[in-house]
Amino acid sequence: MLTSWNSSGLAVAVVRRDPTVPGGWRREYASYGIAKDDGTPVTPDTIFAIASNSKLFLTFSVGLLISNETLVNGHGKKLDWTTKMQDILPEWGLMDETASKETNIQDMLSHRTGLPGHIYTLTNGSSGTGIPEMIASMKTLRPSAQFRDTFQYNNMMYCTLSYLPVVLTNQSYESYIAQHLFGPLNMSSSTYSIKDAEASGRFAHGFELNTYNISTGARSSRAAVAPYYLRSGHEKAAAGGGGVLTSARDMSIWVSMLLNNGRHPDTNETIVPEEVVNHAATGVTVDSAMASYPELAPTLYGSGQRIYSYRGHEIIEHGGSIMGFKSQVTRYPNDNLAIVVLSNDFNAGLLAEAVKWRITDEILGLSPIDWDTRYSW
């Protein structure tokens, strides 16, 4: 499949409940293609940017803050999913008066503030703009829908929420995640730091097509977007919405924890309260009211998670797309199965989907569907 798609590299992890192996979780890995333009091969420990699959880390950081009774006692009031932003952040404000006053944490997590993406406001993080400055700038951005009227994907809301650990605990978002998630799960390859990822020697180059002929469908050679589209030191603005750099091996631990309802897959210690894991996967807004194929169902959006079904099997997942990289992290909670697909090819979104479905059909014993052909250009 990698060859037919003229793609650069893939790392895949599959996690299944298996009582015959130590710990009860079977983790399998496969890697294909090149990680760097010098031909270095992809391995399960190659570090990829997972883009918007970082959003669940942000959601869990909020959930942990909500669950932190010490924080509640210290500030005299309870933080909740329905806490209004104007009560937490002095910089907060939107052009729409109702949205400015009423927007709460859940509205931001489920993309229903009325504010569209305004993707160039973040300047891809390359300007090094700080989070408070970004929050203050949102007062100047026009809404394109009524408050809570529709789903509009917006990275700025997640970036704004990454400021909560600073305000409420005087700790940076990145160190908060390291302390509460990366560290306890021993996700040793995972970081928000470009410098640290590059220093490991395992950070993949992202690739993109040089040219694509719309008329003939011919795809040209690939060029590396090297070393990374962000410059070291400018990661902070993108951290909450899409800043995690990680490996397939680390993500296999992450999805094992998710399948284990927030508990460490080996020790059974609670990493994220089960109610927080469930909250993230509870649909709030309608992402897609019509399914794109008969095997799929309409999609709901919770908090950094999409929820739908495939051939009768419930799915909780998210995709990730950032210059030079794609990711797909999918779990089937009722089947104790999770699939992670990481790519260093910006054009590999449908390839990652095809790989996911092929593995799904095989493991769940479903009649195979040729998704590769369906998705091919």
TrEMBL record:
Per its UniProt record, what InterPro entries does this chain match? AmpC-like (IPR050491), Beta-lactam-related (IPR001466), Beta-lactam/transpept-like (IPR012338)
Q: Enumerate the spans annotated as Beta-lactamase-related domain.
A: 8-348
Pfam families annotated for this entry?
Answer: Beta-lactamase (PF00144)
Kindly give the SUPFAM superfamilies that the UniProt entry links to this protein.
beta-lactamase/transpeptidase-like
Where do the TM regions start and end?
Answer: none
The record's comment on protein family reads:
Belongs to the peptidase S12 family.
Q: State the name under which the record lists this protein.
A: Beta-lactamase-related domain-containing protein
Lineage, broadest ranks:
Eukaryota, Fungi, Dikarya, Basidiomycota, Agaricomycotina
